[in-house]
Amino acid sequence: MKTFHYADILVQPHLSEKANDLMVSEGKYVFQVSVNATKLDVARAIKERFNVDVVDVNMINLPRKKKKVGRHDYMKNKRRKAIISLAEGQRIAELSEAV
Asked: Is the pTM for the entire model greater than 0.70?
């Protein structure tokens, strides 16, 4: 069995205006995660990385985007986002201070 590491699941925090509004008003955090990650994997990775209690995880599959460089067209890879709800009164200080 392969050992579990949160870096295999969490790609990066998704920082946007909408994600910032979710973080401030509702205490939800948005992360870009691996395409193969499940809700349980994401919850476990967040708990291991930030030492917080995860209440709920919502996953969003984003479509591939068509890009063009000069005359050449190509498709970007699939992406996946996770919206994380934490227990009441908890927050991720690293992300809250960054925004």
From this structure: yes
